[in-house]
């Protein structure tokens, strides 16, 4: 541990270029995706990504609640991202806060741009994301889980939506930040990509980086998203080729 003022900060990058968990700058944390992990939902997925554990459930297209939100020419996409009180080190106060509202909104908007919403007028497609254990990048894990859950529910989309956060750690651009890197790094840039078109449908940034660093981050994020895309497709193949929940799902 080094120190800045009174605050203890961990050494984020070793002299030989290794990160706090031994990863290289362009390396993802390990990821496991289970499609169809829940029985009650129309579609579901569970994602373990590093120390993140995130469940997504999808319902719809179904009747709109509250009714006044109904749109005559398309489905609406509603998302509720929630972090469990036990998901973080310091107990999180349960319920809706500004952060969860913001994350729910950006995720709903990202999916609205890939789902064929015009095919289901006057309905709602509801996405629930429950973060059971958090270690940075939970909105991206939520997008990955929700995307596989939407596919599992048979909801027509342009493409799956892989997502990852890139950031700046000890002056270097790094893929898929974990908690210490998110907390003590210089920037955090979550993104979600439509792989076939290369369109970004979610892009946020906290912190500071230069123009060239931003473009390096975007390039690295796109490479990361494409690798995650392969894992998402494999989870769906596992589920449907085997005719049941994919490996690891309890019956
Ligand atoms: N976090 C926390 N308590 C909170 C919110 C966040 O401990 O109330 C942690 C959690 O590990 C989260 C990380 O801080 O994953 C980074 O949060 P951020 O808001 O950047 O969103 P995320 O990276 O999870 O999408």
Question: What is the topological layout?
Answer:
Layout: E1 2-4, E2 7-9, E3 31-35, E4 43-49, E5 52-62, E6 76-83, H1 98-112, E7 124-133, H2 138-152, E8 163-169, E9 172-175, H3 179-184, E10 187-194, E11 199-203, E12 206-207, H4 211-242
Parallel strand pairs: 6-7
Antiparallel strand pairs: 1-2, 3-4, 4-5, 5-7, 8-9, 8-10, 10-11, 10-12
The structure holds uridine-5'-diphosphate.
Note the total helix count: 4
Q: Quickly give the structural class.
A: alpha+beta
Q: Hey, roughly how much beta strand do the residues contain?
A: 25-35%
The helicity comes to 25-40%
CATH architecture title: 2-Layer Sandwich
Note poorly predicted spans: 1-6
The end-to-end distance, rounded to whole angstroms, is: 44 Å
Instruction: Return the CATH class.
Output: Alpha Beta
Classified in CATH, the superfamily is GHMP Kinase, N-terminal domain
Shape: globular
Strand order of the largest sheet: 3-4-5-7-6
> At the third CATH level, what is the topology name?
Ribosomal Protein S5, domain 2
The ligands found in this model are: uridine-5'-diphosphate
Task: Tally the structural domains.
Answer: 1
What kind of sheet is the major sheet? 5 strands, mixed
How big is the Rg?
18 Å
Mean of all residue-level pLDDT scores = 93
The run of helices and strands is EEEEEEHEHEEHEEEH
Number of strands: 12
Oligomer: single chain
Description:
The protein is an alpha+beta fold and 251 residues long. The chain has a single domain (24-231), classed as GHMP Kinase, N-terminal domain (Ribosomal Protein S5, domain 2, 2-Layer Sandwich). It is 27% helix and 29% strand. The protein contains four helices and twelve strands. The chain has helices at 98-112, 138-152, 179-184, 211-242; strands at residues 2-4, 7-9, 31-35, 43-49, 52-62, 76-83, 124-133, 163-169, 172-175, 187-194, 199-203, 206-207. The strands form three sheets. It has a five-stranded mixed β-sheet. Strands 8, 9, 10, 11 and 12 form a five-stranded antiparallel β-sheet that branches. Strands 1-2 form a two-stranded antiparallel ribbon. Helix 2 runs parallel beside helix 4. The termini are far apart. Mean pLDDT is 93; it is low at 1-6. The site of uridine-5'-diphosphate has 14 residues, from helix 2, helix 3 and strand 10.
